[in-house]
Design a protein that fits this description.
CATH topology of the largest domain: Translation Initiation Factor IF3
Strand order of the largest sheet: 5-6-4-7
Helix content: 25-40%
CATH architecture of the largest domain: 2-Layer Sandwich
Shape: elongated
Largest sheet: 4 strands, antiparallel
Order of helices and strands: EEHHEEHHEHEHEHEHEH
Number of domains: 2
Number of helices: 9
Strand content: 25-35%
């Protein structure tokens, strides 16, 4: 007998599957479901399970360095609240928005920013973003060499005054920091994480009443934005632009790609590392009687 669905034909077999084969298929399916059902973090921790006799801990590391570059992203919005208006079909797309932020760009140039270091970003994504007032108008990006908090604050103030000339307000301000070579920072963060894991493992061994052995395995643990990590790192908001491994930034769907600006923080690049390390238990030391 044949059953036809759409343009495909499915033939039913009269052969029956034996009990042993059914059991093997069921066990395989359950194992696959159990593996796929785990969240990414749980799968990572499962991969870093301790050996039969051993201690596994996660070490945390953070390294910082003064920023060599910075990128400021400022989204400006209309002062008055109102629904979005359809653009003039005969107008050049983005021309009106660029004209509106002209005084803002001029204010940045008057503050010493070269023209080539200023970019104006317009588009439907920004126009669909609502700030305290009306829809977003544009995003103005500024590249800064050897940034300091004072210099960044000065440029934000200049942009604010320029935007006000067109009755625009800054509704989002983000700043990302960068360095030319991330390798030293990444190595330092990893070394700190590994050393931290050793300290935690020593305490764990002491509580267990065993002697800690050598490290026998290690694996990376992704750094994810989580309130639970704030206890160690403080507010876990990454500041780096090119360095890895990155920590995701919660931007809440806003049209910026750098972390929110914190005027009280230092102009630094922060790199985080987390390493799961497994240590053996020194059974020989435990078996040796004390003299």
């Amino acid at each position: 007998m044949e059953r036809t669905t759409g343009s495909r034909s499915f033939a039913r077999s009269d052969r029956r599957v034996g009990p042993a084969l059914k059991g093997a298929l069921l066990a395989g399916a359950l194992a696959l479901v159990a593996t796929l059902g785990l969240p990414a973090g749980a799968q990572t921790q499962q991969a870093a399970q301790a050996p039969t006799q051993g201690i596994t801990v996660i070490g945390y590391g953070k390294s910082s360095a003064s920023a060599e570059t910075a990128e400021i992203q400022m989204v400006v919005s209309q002062e008055e609240f109102g629904p979005p208006r359809a653009p003039d079909p005969d107008a050049t797309p983005g021309a009106q928005e660029r004209e509106a932020v002209g005084p803002m760009v001029e204010g940045l140039q008057a503050a010493g920013v070269p023209e080539e270091d200023i970019s104006v970003v317009v588009g439907a994504v920004i126009g669909g973003f609502y700030g305290p007032g009306g829809p977003g108008v544009a995003r103005v990006d500024v590249a800064v060499d050897m940034p300091t908090q004072e210099r960044i604050t000065e440029l934000i103030d200049a942009a604010t005054v320029g935007a006000a000339e067109e009755n625009l307000v800054l509704v989002l301000i983000g700043v990302g920091y960068g360095v030319s070579d991330c390798a030293p920072l990444e190595r330092e963060a990893r070394e700190m994480a590994f050393n931290d894991a050793g300290t935690r493992a020593e305490l764990q061994a002491e509580l267990m009443g065993v002697q800690l052995g050598e490290a026998v395995a290690a694996s990376d643990v992704p750094v994810n934005f989580s309130e639970s990590l704030n206890a160690y790192y403080g507010a876990l908001t990454p500041t780096q632009l090119p360095c890895s491994p990155p920590a995701p930034v919660p931007t809440s769907g806003s049209p910026v790609s750098v972390p929110p600006f914190d005027p009280t923080d230092e102009a630094e690049v922060n790199v985080y590392a987390q390493v799961a390390v497994s240590f053996a238990i020194d059974t020989e030391a435990a078996a040796t009687p004390a003299s």
